Amino acid sequence: MSERTRLVTKRIFTWGLPAVLLAGLVAIARRTPPEEVDLAVVRPGDLVVTVEDEGKTRVRERYVLSAPVDGTLLRVELEPGDPVRAGETVAATFVPRDPTLLDARSRAEAEAAVSTARAGLEKARAERSRAEAELANARTELERLTRLRAEQIVAQEALDTAATRADTLESSARAAAFAVDAAEHELARARAALVISGDADNDSSAAVELRSPVDGVVLRRLRESRATLPAGEPLVEIGDPGQLEIVADLLSSDAVRVRPGQRAEIVRWGGDRTLAAVVRRVEPSGITKISALGVEEQRVDVVLDFVGDPGSWSALGDGYRVEVAIITDSAEEVLVVPTSTLFRSGEAWAVWAVEDDRAARREVELGARNGFDAEVVAGLAEGDRVVVHPGAGIEAGSRLVERSP
Fold first, then answer.
1. Does residue 302 have a pLDDT over 90?
2. What one-character DSSP code corresponds to residue 206?
3. pTM > 0.85
4. What does DSSP say about strands 296-306 and 275-282: parallel, antiparallel, or unpaired?
5. Residue 103 burial by CB count (10 A; 0-12/13-18/19+): exposed, middle or buried?
6. Domain tally for the chain?
7. Comparing 283 with 164, which gets the higher pLDDT?
8. What is the C-alpha to C-alpha distance for residues 177 and 185, in angstroms, rounded to an integer?
């Protein structure tokens, strides 16, 4: 080996090798460490979408007994919760004031009030007959479909619809019967006003007993002590606590997704089990309310009926607070991904998927979703791993490692 060759070799080892080592150390120092992330696996499952809010129970049919004429109310002995019988229990006793002579116009008005009340009674009776006829027809149809369903001739959906219609018409028939009772008492009140005010043979000291129009209990005692009151002053509120319904005032943006007939669950009502309910009515108009934070909100009342065994909600009474979860959408055996993995990519939704331990952006098409999970229609497959709560530091190609539990 010549002297020149030895000199070149020496320079290579003296300067080249350290330079190579230094470049390697710099590359190692600059190498980005893998990002520690939490991962979720795309899996098949069931998805339920609900609208949740607070609700309040109330007696479906409630009646307020009022002072029929000006006079003196005697002390009301009934207590809230006391049972009453229709036409038997005296809810309040009222002594009319001394009658005054009626002129021709006042007497004509009193007689017209009696005629109006009589017409209202006839109308209520006609409505009751119609409701009873429709109920009988619905029950016959339900029996027919029950037999056909047993022979597998009709679908279960048709039988469920017929059963729901029969239950609804049964409630309508009860309401019509209550309306007849109320109309009868309204006629009696109008007649009493005419007799007490215009009959010269009337004994003004005679007391008028206000009897309960329906079977039930005293919900509220609006007046207790003896007092002189004007006509129309509310005295006692009566209803049947066994006929409960639920009213939930939803945000109008949530109420647009609610339809009559949708199933619901009553949770956190104080019992140890979830109660079943069904939406009966969505009120057609909203009301403005102020939230606890002082923000104006548009609220819509949604009325629900309990379904199932009445004994399961017998502990509830009028005006009790409950939590309502109305099921607006559901899907079975679909690909589900946690909503915490989703982020916006322009106008689309996207996730960071893990491919060979590196991040890959994937746009996904979503179906139904709730606050926890979302249905994946396209963009991911079963078993794919995706990043939960992706940070701003993740980019396409970033090295990822799953965080230790």
1. yes
2. -
3. no
4. antiparallel
5. exposed
6. 4
7. 283
8. 13
**DSSP conformation letters of 283-327:** -SS-EEEE-TTS-EEEEEEEEEEE-S-GGGGTT--TT-EEEEEEE
Residues 194 and 136 in one domain: yes
Are 169 and 249 found together in one domain? no
C-alpha dist (Å) from residue 162 to 129, 137, 149: 21, 11, 12
The lowest-confidence range among 5-9, 87-91, 241-245, 399-403 is: 5-9
Q: Mind listing the pLDDT tens digit for each residue in 207-261? A: 788 888 888 899 999 988 888 888 889 999 998 888 899 999 999 999 999 999 9
Residue 82 lies in a domain: no
| Judgement on whether residues 246 and 289 belong to the same structural domain of the protein | yes
Q: Which domain holds residue 22?
A: 1-31
List the structure tokens of 388: 């939960």
- Please indicate, yes or no, whether residues 309 and 349 belong to a single structural domain of this protein: no
Q: Tell me the per-residue pLDDT of 108-120, one tens digit each, with 9 for 90 and over.
A: 777 788 888 888 8
pLDDT band at 204 (very low <50, low <70, confident <90, very high): very low
In a domain, 211, yes or no: no
Whole-number Å distance between alpha carbons of 258 and 255: 5
Length in residues, the chain: 405
Residue among 361, 349, 366 nearest 387 (CA): 361
Alpha carbons 227 and 72: distance in angstroms, whole number: 6
For residues 232 and 261, what is the distance between their CA atoms, to the nearest angstrom? Answer: 38
E-assigned strand segments in 109-253: 208-211, 216-221, 227-229, 234-239, 244-251
| 152 is a domain residue | yes
Residue 70 within a domain: no
| Claim to verify: residue 104 and residue 40 sit in the same structural domain | no
C-alpha to C-alpha distance for 227 and 71, rounded to whole angstroms: 8
Q: Do 320 and 359 lie in a common domain?
A: no
Q: H/E element holding 375?
A: strand 373-378
